Amino acid sequence: MNFNDFKASQIRIARPTDQFERVIEFYETGLGLERLTEFHGHRGYDGVIFGLPGLPYHLEFTTHQDGSPCPAPTKDNLLVFYVEDQEEIKKVSERLAQMGYDEVEPENKYWQEKGMTIEDPDGWRIVLMNTSGI
Predict the structure, then answer these.
(1) Each residue of 94-108: pLDDT tens digit?
(2) Which residues, 6+ apart, have CB-to-CB distance to 134 below 8 Å?
(3) Domains in the chain, ordered, with CATH?
(4) Where on the phi/psi map is residue 54: left (φ > 0), alpha (ψ -120 to 50), or beta?
(5) For 2-132, where are the alpha helices, taking DSSP H only?
(6) Which is nearest to 77 in space by CA: 17, 127, 132?
(7) How far is the CA of 24 from the CAs of 5, 30, 78, in angstroms?
(8) Among 21, 34, 38, 62, which residue carries the largest CB count within 10 Å?
(9) 84 exposure class (CB count in 10 Å sphere: 0-12, 13-18, 19+)
(10) pLDDT tens per residue, range 105-123
């Protein structure tokens, strides 16, 4: 059995939020992700899609006219960004701190060894990891 035959051209992680504008500010202004596209009034939904230039990995945040609660599950559900340049991590973390988003203690101490953990407005956590990844 060959498990390497799955083909996909993109991956998108989508999440609802009731703090739509604050989440947009966190990921766009604070983290510095590129807004790839957005939509309004689609079956009651507004949304914005972020990504890294030239990569087929996207984050979508939506809000619905009737509400879009999405409580964070645990402190170990993470979105990890591998950033090789320590100065880039410093720049982003300082910008987020100025916006009121300080580093938080990770549940798993592994993420503290070469990274820093920050909560977004909904309590979901990102990690800025100072390695090239896998």
Answers:
(1) 999 999 999 999 999
(2) none
(3) 11-64 (3.10.180.10), 78-129 (3.10.180.10)
(4) left
(5) 20-24, 86-98, 110-113
(6) 127
(7) 35, 9, 18
(8) 62
(9) exposed
(10) 999 999 999 999 999 999 9
Q: Which residue has the tokens 């390695």?
A: 131
Amino acid at position 24, single letter: I
- Vertex 76 angle, CA 19 and 27, to 5°: 35
The answer to whether the CB of 38 falls within 8 A of the CB of 47 is: yes
CB burial of 60-70 (b: ≥16 within 10 Å; e: otherwise) equals bbbbbeeebeb
Two tokens at 118? 């920050």
Quickly tell me which residue has 């820093």 as its tokens.
116
